[in-house]
Amino acid sequence: MKIGIVGFYGKLGKTNYNVIKDSKICSVAFGISRSAPNEGEVFDNIKVYNNIFNTHEECEGVIDFSNRENINSSVNYCLDKNIPLVIGTTGLNSDDEEIILKASNYIPILLSHNTAYGVNVLLDIVNSACKKLYDFDIEIIEKHHNRKEDAPSGTSKLIFNSLKEANPNLYTKFGREGNNSKRNYDEVGFHSVRAGSIISDHDVIFASGEEVITISHRALSDEVFAKGALKALLFLKEKNSGLYDIKDIFL
Q: Measured between alpha carbons, how far is residue 62 from residues 25, 199, 221 in Å?
């Protein structure tokens, strides 16, 4: 399978490239990067473009872990080629999500804020815990590298959604400060750390007056996301149009 990588020079773009390069059944068709100085410049025998519509190489699927500003072009390119698309970009707004939803009527698209297998198991665990620990306070702490632009993380939002499935009364509280920061019932606190080169850490704290349970996931390498994205694209290759979730693959 020949795969286009959007966000080629980014941290995850480079990891996607290495994972695909090492695959026995896939290869990189081209790279897309807004920082590419010249259209069609060559990096390790791969042509890198500013604009995905300037590419000429055969492509059978696209992985986009870039910036929300690329979503429209990635979606329209895949619609034009009638090929699957995996989106791991976070920080999307409602307009971006509407574009993706409409396109999924015609091509298979997987949208996930986290393509790691373990995170998706974590979502099931916290859902189950929330049902049983219904009177515990809940806080979510997420930690990422100092270059991450959006906060809170897409994964922490997924965690909250999983909690809310178990208890529809839950609502979010982003950060705390001042003298009137006492927590309220059914409140889920969100806390974002941006420091150094932390890849992706998420802690879900359940606390009562007598005990504390912390459920954690820590990514030790970006490869876990790239391998999940590649598995997702291979999954989509055999599917009809539709909007898929990473749980459709792993769970």
A: 15, 23, 22
